[in-house]
Structure formats: structure tokens, C-alpha cells
């Protein structure tokens, strides 16, 4: 197999592995609050929102050290170990206890920071400036198939049910745990690149053979990776992109946790309210896959760079937020186990709710494919620190959003996303224009990115 073929193979395996793991985890996140609501009349007294807030809070802090961990251990082993912790978190739901639930939330936060930093490193070292757009799209499309399969099962398994029994819960989470473990094992198929730079390496070609594996050399690389993360955090480009990244954290919280809970709380949807959570996840996945395919795989045909895709993303999200505001009761995110009988500005429509799910997924893919692409392009030599900063900002905003989701009515959550999304789009445009100018100055064809 040629070098280019091996790199594409690695990207596909990376995407498929993440697809399995996040088929389990995203389905778990989508139904967690609904499942927990059905548990809270027992000895279990946890909150899905609080768990996710812990996960993303720990994730954000852990991103300060994740480049150093990847530098010492290597991206492949980091992803394997992280996948195991994802599986353990999902397994907690088989027989949930409050202490195990929150403890697992802390550990998966650490694992997620390492996993996504290693993913960014793996994506970048298997790409160049001509293939980073394509590879970002391939990875994102494969990853988002995770929303399709797990939620399809939830839709059919929970159809017609207004209460989730203990047997239903165990069956679902045993299956999800096995699926997560399959994705973890697939990481072993990724083939190492001989010319791969470890995070924090300044010039791997000057190393003396045999020294790269020494403890001293690994520690130097870890320290270099940490210093690089701090330095990159205060660059103009990274600070501007952080506003865009912050928006992706807020809307990630909304579509992956809050919106499904809203749908499941609307009593006017009748006996379908619980199964509609799964159907919503499917439509989110369709939007994600379509966006990843079109804006990633066809990126080489774009003459205008990344800005039109991000503009489409924010417009699609604004339409979705407007429709959700009119369709969903204001108290849906914080409704009790009995649900809500309130009505917004129209009779709740299942069709409008599913359309909004699709639009949320499509808009999210617009932002994330372009952020992955521009980070891989701007920081090809410092991929692990750059992606660690990306996940740090995204996850800390997701943690904040999950925290206020326990208290804020729907209208205020939508308003926050509109404001941050508007400014995040402007800052992305600024970085993209500067990147295009720099590329043109080097005499390269920017449309090939």
C-alpha cells in the first residue's frame, strides 16, 4: 500500500473507531436524563445534566496536560485506554449508583481530553495541506454515523413506552457497552507513520536513533508540548477561533442533551414522546453525515475557502432556534418526570421537531468540519497542542451550558447560543481571511485546502 493509501486507511479506521465509541456514548448522553428521571424514585439521585457538566469541566482542565500525555505515551495507546474508560462510564448505567455515576463522570472527562487530543494529532499527521479538508470531512462523516445507529435502536425499542423499565435500561446499556469496546479494539488497526512528529517535537529529524524512546527525551517532549499549548493559547488566531469554538460547545450541549430531553418531556406528543428522542438523534445524525460528506469530501472544489460553509452553518442554526422557540414549551428542559402540558406559540409538531433536529446536525457539521480543517492547516506542526486548546474551550463552554441547563428556561438557552454564534462566525471569518492572504502570499492555491 502506498504512503497516501496508508494515511487514508488510518483516517477511515480512526473514523470507524470513533463511530462505534460514540454510537454508544452519544446515545447514552441523549437518553441519560430521560433514563435518570425514571430512576429518581429509587435510591439513585443523580442528574444527567450535572454528570455532563462534570465531564466537560474535567475535560477542559485535563486539556492542559493531554498534549504531554500524548507526547509520552503516543496517540494510539492513548486512544485505546480512553476508549476503555468510555466503556466503563456507559456500563455504570447497567446498575447505576450515584457515587459510581459521578466518579465515572470524572474519569471519562480525563479520558475524553486525551482521546480528542490524540485524535487531532492522528488526523493531522495523516494529512497535508491538500488533504486536510477531505480527511476532516471523511472523519466527521464516519463519526456522525454514531448518531444514526444507536438512536435508530432507541426509536424502535422505546416506541409506545411512557416509562423506561429496569429490563429496558439494562438491555440498552449492555449493548452500548459492547459497541464501545468494539470501537476501542479497532484503534489497534491504525498503522504508525514513520515520519510522524510527536507533539511538542521541534525537529524530529535531528534525533539520534534510539534516544526517542528514552524517559528523558519523552519528558522533554511532554514539557515542550505543555509550553507550546500555553504559547498557542495567546496567539491572535487561536483567541479568535476560541469564540467560534465556544459556540460549538454551547450548541453541542443543546443538541446532544437538552433538545432530546425537551422532546421527551412534551406530553402532547403522546405515547411517542420517548421514542421520538431516538428519532431526533437519527435526524441530527443525518444532518451531520450530510454536512460532513458535502463540506468535507467536496472541499477541494471550493473556490471560496471555509467561510461560506460557516455562514451556512450559522444561518441553518438560526432557523432551527427560531422554529424550536415556536414549537417547544419554554419549561421543557427542566420539566419533571410527569412532563409538561404547556404549549409555546404553536401546537407542538413532531414534524417541525424532527426538521429542527436535522438542521441542528447540519449546522454543527458546518462548524466542526471547518474548525478541524483550519486548525490542521494553521497548526500542522503543533497539532496536539492546537487540538487540546480547541477541546479545552469547547468542553468548558459545554460544561457551563450543561450546568445552566438545570435552571434556564428554553428561551434563555436559545438566546445565549444566538449571541455567541453571531460573534463566533465573525471571528472565524477574520481568521479565514488572514489565512487565505498568507496562503496567497506563499503562492499556493488556497482553493485546494
From TrEMBL:
Keyword Cell cycle recorded: no
UniProt topology in membrane: Multi-pass membrane protein
InterPro entries to which the protein is assigned, alphabetical: Ion_channel_UNC-93, MFS_trans_sf, UNC-93-like_regulator
Keywords tagged on the record: Glycoprotein, Membrane, Transmembrane, Transmembrane helix
Protein's UniProt keywords contain Membrane: yes
Cited Pfam families: UNC-93
Superkingdom of origin: Eukaryota
Segments passing through the bilayer: 7-25, 69-92, 99-118, 138-158, 170-190, 276-297, 309-328, 352-379, 386-404, 410-431
Localisation per UniProt entry: Membrane
Gene Ontology CC terms, in alphabetical order: membrane
Family: Belongs to the unc-93 family.
Descriptive protein name: UNC93-like protein MFSD11
Organism: Oxyruncus cristatus
Organism ancestry: Eukaryota, Metazoa, Chordata, Craniata, Vertebrata
